[in-house]
Every structure is written in C-alpha cells, then in structure tokens.
C-alpha cells in the first residue's frame, strides 16, 4: 500500500528561498513568514498523511455508488471531509467576510499539492467547491454572495461546474440546455449535463450547481449562453433548506480512475435556476477563473507524479534484485537494491527533476495570479494568461508520464492494483483531458495567447529569460550547467515562434500542426528557467555556508540532470514544428 | 463500444510486397502465395471481428473469478475458445506430426496481430500454450512430446510458464521453489509462483505448467535451476487424465488490465514434476524461445495501438466539434468533424505511422526467426537476437503511448470505461512490464547484445542500412524524404554505439545510463528503415501503374510523416546518451 509524506522542505525552499515570498510587495505576502507558512504546511501534511492518504486506495477500490437517487462516497470519506471542514482548509484563501482566512492564493496552491498528492479523488469535492465559490465571488450579486458563500466556504454546502453535454465538450456553442425566464425573475433549467465531477454525494447538506444554459434572445453559438446557480435543495429566505429542486443524478460514470469522486450525469428537469452575472455573458463568467482552474489541474498532474515518485523511491531502495555492474553494494544480502542500477536511476531522476521543476513553475504561476488579483499587476496577468496552457498541458502530460514511470520501477507488482501504483497513473490520466483537453490547451496557446496584445506577453517572457541570463553571465558555476542549456532551449522556442509568425500568416494549419510540440517546448523552457533559478538560489545558500549543504547539493545535481537530459527535447520539438503543416495534413480524411 | 477490423490490405502489403515472402528461399515460404495467405488472414479476421472483439470489453468488465479453487473465465470465453480450437489456429505453425499445419512462424505472427488486437486477454490463453509447446518441442524427450504435444496443439490442454516468485522476477538466481528427486525419476515440486498468466481456467481439460525450480546439486544462483513439466491433472499411461496433482491456485491478481486473463498465484505443494531438458540447465531451456516470446510481446504492444487507432479514427470522423481554422468543412452541419483539426491529425498520424512501421518491423523479425530455424541462417539468428530487445521494448512503449493518444482523441469519453478506450491503454500497459521489463530489455541490448560476437551483428545492421542507402542513392524521389533522414538517424545510432564503446570501457555505468535511450534510438532507426523500404515498394507499385494508387500514396504520406516528425527524436536520444553516467548517478541513494 502506498504512503505519502508532504515534501515540506521542498515546498519551503520554493516559497521562502526561490520566490522569497515574504519580501514581495503583493498585498498579504508580508504575512507569509517562514514560521507561519511552515506551520500551515506541517498541519496540512499531517492531515494528508494520517487521514487522506490512507483512504486513497480504498476509495479507488470501493468507488461511489448511486442507490435510489442518492450518491454514496466511499467509506471514510465523510469523516475525512469533516476533518477538512473542521480545519477550515477550504477557506484558506477566501475572504474573511465569508468565513475564510484571506491568505494569498499561493498558499492554497502549496497546500493543494499536499492534499491532491494524498488523495486526488477526495480533494476534488473541495476543489470544485472552491471553483464555484470563485465564480460567485466574481459575478454573484451581493444577495447571492450572502446566501451561498458562507456555507460553501465552510463546506456545509459544496459546489459543481456544469458545462459538458453529451454532444459537446470543447465546442460549447452547441449546447442545448435551456433556461426559460419566469415571472419572479428566476429561470427554469432543462437539459442534461455529463461528466459533472462531485455532481452529487453524501458529504454536504446542499450542492450548489453552476450551470451553463441558453436563455432566449442571446443568438447563436456561445453568445447565447448564460450562467445559472441551481441549488440541489432550494434555499429559504432564512437560509434553511427547502424543497428538493428539479435536478437529479442520472448515472455515475465508470471511469479509468478517480473512482472516489462521483462523476455524474445530471438531469435538469425544469429546475429553478438563478442568473449569475450578466445575461448571455455566461462564457465570460465561467471562464473568469480559468487560470486558477487550469493551474489547479496542472498541479494535480505533477502532484500525482510526486506521490508516485515517493513510493517508487521506497521500492527501489527496498527491493533486492540483481547486482550493481560496478560491484556488489549490498554484499551481505542476496542481491543489491534496485536503486543501484543505472536505468532505475535514470527513471527516478526523470521523475524527481520533473516534479521539483513543476512545483517551482506552479507556485511561481500562483504568485503571478496573486500579483494580478491583489496588486492589479497587468503584466503578471498577461504572463500567467500566456503560461496557463503550458502549466496545464505540459505538467499533466509529464505528470502522467511520471506516474507511469514510477509504476514501471515496481515491475510486475506495478500492474497489480494491490500495490497502488496503477492508481496514480489512472488518476493522473484525467488531468490530460478535463478542464480543456491538452490539444485544446495547445490551440489556446498558439491560436490565441501567442498573438495576444500583439505578442507582448511572449516578448516579455523572452526578455525575462534574457535578463536572467545577462544578470548571471559572470557566474561560471552556473554557466555550462544551467545558463548555456537554458539559452539554447530559449533560442529553440524563439525560432518556433518565428516559424509560426512567418508560415502561420500564409497557412494557419502550419502553426496549429506544431501547437502540441510548441506547448511542450515552452514547458521545457519554463522548467529549465526554474531549474536555473533554483540552482542560483542553491549556490547562494552554499556560498553563505548553510548547515544543510546536502539539500542544496542535491538540488544542483537534480537540476543538472534536467538541463542535460530533458532540455535536449527542445531541438526535436523545434524540428517537428518546422516541418510545418504538410506532413500532418497530407492525407484526405478517407485515407485514415 | 469499440470495434475491430483486421487490416488485411496492410498485412498483405508487408507480406507480399515489402517482404516478398513467396520469393524467399526459406523452406516453407514458397507455399505462402498471396491467395493462400490472404484466405488465412480473411478467416482470422472474421473470427476476430465476430467472436473475439465482441468479448473484449465484456471480458474486461467481468474479469476472472476464483471459486472454491476453480477459476472461471468471463462469459463467452469458453465458446470463443472452442471456435479457436475448431479453426485449428493454435497449430498454424506447429509440426504436422503433432497435429499442426507446419506453416512458417511468420504466419503465426501475422494472424497473431489480428487475434491480439481483437482481444489480447483472451488470446493469451492460446499464446502461453504456444510458448510452452515451443519449449517442449525444443527440449522435451520423445515420450514427453508424444504425451503432451498433440493435446496442447489441439488446445484440449493449455500451457503456462512459471518463473516469477514473490521476491524475484528479473533476478531468477534468487528463486526458492524446490525440486526433490524421487525414486521413480520424477521430482516433487514445492514453492510459490506469482504472476502466472492463464495459470488456471475453465477453457481446457488440463493445464501443463512449465516450472523453474532448484534441484539439489546445481550450485548457487541461476546455475542450479532446472525446468519441469507439472501437469494440473496427472496423465495416465494411456493418455487419460488421472488424479489432481499438488498444484493449486492461491489467488487471482487484480490488475490494471487484461482482466479477461487469469493471472494466478500458483502454489506447488509437493506436486509431481518431470524434468525437461538437462538438469541444472533450466534457464537455457526456458529462454530458448525468448526471441519469439519477446517479439510476441512487442506485437501485443503495437496491436493494442492498432485497435485503439481504428476506433480513434472512427470517432474523429464522427464527432462534430468546432470548425476547421481554414473554413467550415461541414457547413450544413452544426460543426466539423474532429478530424479537420490539425492537432487531431498530428495525433492520428503519430498513431498510424507508428503502427504501420511496427507491423513491418515485427513481420521482418518473424521472417528472420524462420530463416534461423528453417534454414539455419546464423546471420539472421544473430540479427534477430540483437533486435529482439528493440522489438520488445520500443514497440511496447510506443504501443502504450499510441493507445493513450487514441484515448485522448475521445476527450472526456476516453476516460469513461463504457467507451472502451481506457481498456486499450490499460491492457497495453502490461506489455512494457512482462517478459522482461523494458529497462531489462535495454540492459540486455546494451549490456549483452551490442558486444555479442565482437559486435558483428550491430556492424551487420549498419552495413544493411548503408547498403540500402547506397543501392537507392540515385532515386531522387526517395532521397530528401526518406534516405537523408534515415542516414542522419543511423549516424546518431552509430555515434551512440561509439560513445558506449569509448566511455563504457572506463565506466560501465556510462553505457547503462544511456541504455533506455539507446533502445529507443535503435527503434526509431529500425522504423525509419522500414518506412524507407515501404516507400521504395510503394513507389515501385505506383511506377508500375497500379490500379490502387490511393493506397500507395497514403503509404508514402504516412512514411514521410514518420521521417519528418518521429525520426528527429534520435538527436535527443543521442544528446542524452552522450551526457554519460554523471547526471544519472550523481546522487547518493539517500538523496532520493
């Protein structure tokens, strides 16, 4: 059975040293002193290790069930949810006026990694609620906020997001769910929604659904879409619960993974809904929080990688099989531990160097979100907007790959469910699909984000890399191992961008055929930048005579691995991109 | 629900045109006229489509169960197994004296792709039997052959391979199962074996286990291992079944996939076993058939990719979502089919170009095995020995990747078990692990095969590529699209081999740290060679005025895609390899 220990020292390294959070002028950051954030991470780590992680495998095995219209979560989830509520974890970064603690979003992300790594399916009940709260905060009326937020922040009520229908996922313009205006200002919502995570369950008193539907008069396509609040139980004027609303669970989907989360078919049958935000501007309302939502999914990807990695390391140290080619390292035992073998090392280093780079990238992204929201920093907003599809697409593809690699360390035992490694891969797989499939992320990146504001954000990114390289060019200890490879990778990225500009003008397919490779190329450059920065930080600590030299030396060695063995991928991505549209689009559809 | 249609035209292209099988001087090949092999493939295709494929998803869902010591396979498997028996499919390439049809192994591979793609878990009952038959054919006494083979060839009895124990998989020197000699010449076998595919079931009257165990006097490690035949039911002198032997099923493992195949814990409790082959030379006996067994697993990998690809194509043509960026292609419909989108194309082309290259590689490998066995061709034997770890490791990694990519085309529906795409990925995952995990394949390739016979086989491989390039250097139609990229990739492979020779002398870890990348680099060169040859064949057909021009144009376009978009990976693999042992081995074990 797998176990999980929160990587607190690594999280602290990123928060306190790499990002130097307490020195930031983002409102609320001064409060994030190491002793304060450390205590939060410790508490989250305990809950994760003692309560959430032990329910991960059992929740996967048992799954959710629908009986007479009622959804039951796996054994132990209710008690764990109570612990989550009692700890006030959901409100960490939510406004104090609704019962939250008002900390920066950054802390939600740091704690989120811990909870998601311990039990992704479980944490989604809270995660979806958090998303719904964000939408109500941004677009709800004062009355709506007062009605729903206090009880959602406290997790007495939970939330969902209802977008997908059987015939449309990405292309929401096709959606058919109808909203008919009523005399009292409410709407009757009718239609079917599918793939609704945490759609219903036995963890909360009420479920507040946010539903996209078409109200009359909005026109064709996505223009006609509005966003509605549809509570499972009607809420009386005094805040007590009234009658059951006209929304019910049609089915629970059987999925490849995240079995502990109820993915529901939701049937709306003239359910009472309340418009949130402006009429016919539902798409905008739903997607206001898209950067956070997508960063959160990227985080899920690498967090599954982290959990899988921890267990792969333990197995590689424990399992005795074969002898080191350079001579026995455990001569008194029947064989050496797996970790002596170079290819096992290669595999573990791939995992470790990715996860640590991904963590830095994600928390840096979260800091930009805070800068945008708390400081009104338009440049940070533009930068995180550009990087969001990279965070989501690259970190989930690589997170899944990491979980698969960790499973591989176990050999045959990795394929047996009892050992738990299959679950990390199966759970991570969804992160590549939901919240915009990764192909859609690549399209968003190349088709929209690159050209945004005349290309200013991407220019700013290159400028940032250039400045970093210039600022450190005298540091011989960084040059060969970190600066040179980062420079080469960044050049590949620029060349790819140039190719898109030149050939995409003539033929948009030339850019889109390379979009997936561009997303990965960009991801590697971002992780290369993170590793170069972490190396600088680690070297500074070593130069200052830290008492924890082994930690910083390990950081440097792990970073060197990433630069040497992962960054060379940028050349292949560039070569593919520069092959243009022809190889990709050559065949007529009937030739497939 | 997925469906499957045997890709007969593509198989025929490889057999009749690329490999030109009827013209080969390998004994038995002259018989393989297109009309004859075509009829066999057609019949196999019907069985696959009508009987096996419809049981694939239901077998996955239901799985196997153990009740009171008896293993039951999923509903329908018994009837399907009877159809497989009645068709005589198991004996296709087995000797006529034991009831087979004596055709070349090549035909077993071609038909095998069809059956495995339709239902991998089901086909393993036959596949394991085939492996056990091969071992008995190679090492059994005349009496053992007469006793077991006729009924195993007919599938009245099935077979298994028992190697792994709880504490040892790769490192068989650690095994503990004991064989105690008895006065009558038999042995009492005692111990526990795990991960025994098709270990027990309700499909056959008897199960013939081939078991590795240690008999006294053999010395330490793998030297002391012998191979034994242990029947589930004792066989009387007249061939009728006698008492139950002392072997029982301890458990059926719950796995990530191949649920339709019973993966058993087998307990041997003083079971009667019969030595097969020489005492203390069991490892050699078990591994005689390794090339076929591993080629068979590589085939499973790409066959799952083929099945998944077929369904991804169907979905991409059917599902309407979004509009082509170059203008609506289905203007009368609500949206365009997915297949108009460049990134969907990119994904489908990755799948298609891999599967077709893998098929050519595998059938070429099967032809070398026939040349070795039927013609005593030592060079073919050495070549297939070298290429076996590449076939197994590369094709299973890429086959799994292909299944995952196919699943991605379905978006959210790909994650729902009802749609069947998850199963292809879950089933394909095991192929990277069993029959020697892919890291072990890489070790075999770099640690043993490269240096075999003073490097002669790998030199012969390079010579073959060189000769092909030279023979076709005047063909301008091949040059830029096929010959130049193949040449560049082959140079990368040579440079990697050179690096291993130079640095591996000083430090074996320098070679082994790059072994996994070398296996993939080699795989890309092999598929590049296959595509260059297929392009040559296709161009010849077009030049000859074929009536099926679209087929050959499609082959050329698919090949161009592989050369342009997959072969550039060789540069990255080379860069990683040349970074040597340091990045991989830098950390002490406790730093993980």
Tell me what you see in this structure.
- The structure is a homodimer of 592-residue chains.
- The first copy, chain A, has 20 helices and 11 strands.
- Chain A is an alpha+beta fold.
- Helices cover 55% and strands 12% of the residues of chain A.
- The model of chain A has no long low-confidence stretch (mean pLDDT 97).
- In chain A, strands 3, 4, 5, 6, 7, 10 and 11 form a 7-stranded mixed sheet that branches. Chain A has a two-stranded antiparallel sheet with strand order 1-2.
- In chain A, helix 11 packs across helix 14, helix 11 packs across helix 17 and helix 17 runs antiparallel to helix 18.
- The first copy, chain A, has 3 domains: 280 residues, Beta Barrel (Butyryl-CoA Dehydrogenase, subunit A, domain 2), CATH 2.40.110; 147 residues, Butyryl-CoA Dehydrogenase, subunit A, domain 3; 135 residues, no CATH class.
Q: What is the compact description of this entry?
A:
Two copies of one chain form a homodimer. Chain A is an alpha+beta fold and about 600 residues long.
């Amino acid at each position: 059975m797998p176990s999980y220990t929160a990587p607190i020292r690594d999280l602290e390294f990123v928060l306190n040293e790499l990002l130097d959070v307490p020195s930031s002028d983002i409102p609320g950051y001064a409060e994030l002193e190491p002793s304060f954030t450390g205590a939060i991470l410790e508490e989250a780590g305990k809950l994760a290790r003692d309560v959430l992680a032990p329910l991960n495998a059992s929740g996967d095995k048992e799954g959710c069930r629908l009986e007479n219209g009622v959804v039951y979560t796996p054994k132990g989830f209710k008690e764990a949810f109570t612990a989550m509520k009692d700890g006030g974890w959901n409100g960490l970064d939510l406004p104090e006026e609704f019962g939250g603690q008002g900390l920066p979003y950054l802390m939600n992300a740091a704690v989120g990694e811990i909870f998601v790594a311990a039990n992704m399916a479980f944490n989604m009940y809270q995660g979806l609620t958090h998303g719904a709260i964000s939408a109500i905060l941004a677009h709800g009326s004062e009355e709506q906020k007062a009605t729903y937020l206090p009880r959602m922040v406290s997790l007495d009520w939970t939330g969902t997001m209802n977008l997908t229908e059987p015939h449309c996922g990405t292309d929401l313009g096709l959606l058919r769910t109808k909203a008919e205006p009523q005399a009292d200002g409410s709407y009757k919502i009718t239609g079917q929604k599918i793939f609704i995570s945490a759609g219903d369950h036995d963890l909360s008193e009420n479920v507040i659904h946010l539903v996209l539907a078409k109200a009359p008069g909005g026109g064709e396509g996505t223009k006609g879409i509005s966003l509605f609040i549809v509570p499972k139980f009607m809420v009386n004027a005094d805040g007590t619960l009234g009658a059951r609303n006209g929304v019910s669970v049609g089915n629970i989907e059987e999925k490849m993974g995240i079995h502990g989360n109820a993915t529901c078919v939701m049937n709306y049958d003239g359910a009472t809904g309340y418009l949130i935000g402006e009429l016919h501007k539902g798409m905008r309302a739903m997607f206001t929080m898209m950067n956070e939502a997508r960063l959160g999914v990227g985080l899920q990807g690498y967090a599954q990688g982290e959990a899988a990695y921890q267990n792969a390391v333990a197995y590689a140290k424990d399992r005795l099989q074969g002898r080191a080619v350079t001579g026995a390292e455990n001569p008194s035992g029947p064989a050496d531990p797996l970790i002596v073998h170079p290819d096992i090392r290669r595999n573990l280093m791939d995992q470790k160097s990715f996860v640590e780079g991904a963590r830095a990238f994600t928390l840096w992204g979260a800091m930009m979100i805070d800068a945008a929201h708390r400081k009104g920093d338009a440049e940070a907003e533009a930068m995180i907007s550009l990087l969001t599809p990279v965070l989501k697409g690259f970190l989930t593809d690589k997170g899944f790959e990491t979980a698969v690699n960790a499973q591989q360390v176990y050999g045959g035992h990795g394929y047996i469910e009892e050992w738990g490694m299959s679950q990390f891969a199966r759970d991570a797989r969804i992160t590549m699909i939901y919240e915009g499939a990764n192909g859609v992320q690549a399209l968003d990146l190349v088709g929209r984000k690159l050209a945004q504001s005349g290309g200013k954000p991407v220019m700013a990114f290159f400028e940032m890399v250039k400045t970093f390289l210039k600022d450190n060019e005298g540091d011989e200890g960084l040059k060969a191992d970190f600066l040179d490879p980062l420079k080469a990778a960044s050049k590949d990225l620029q060349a790819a961008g140039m190719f898109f500009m030149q050939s995409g003008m003539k033929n948009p397919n030339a850019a889109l055929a390379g979009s997936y490779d561009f997303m990965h190329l960009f991801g590697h450059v971002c992780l290369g930048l993170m590793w170069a920065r972490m190396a600088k930080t680690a070297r500074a600590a070593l130069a200052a005579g830290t008492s924890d030299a082994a930690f910083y030396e390990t950081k440097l060695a792990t970073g060197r691995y990433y630069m040497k063995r992962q960054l060379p991928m940028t050349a292949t991505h560039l070569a593919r991109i520069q092959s243009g549209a022809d190889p990709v689009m050559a065949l007529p559809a009937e030739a497939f």
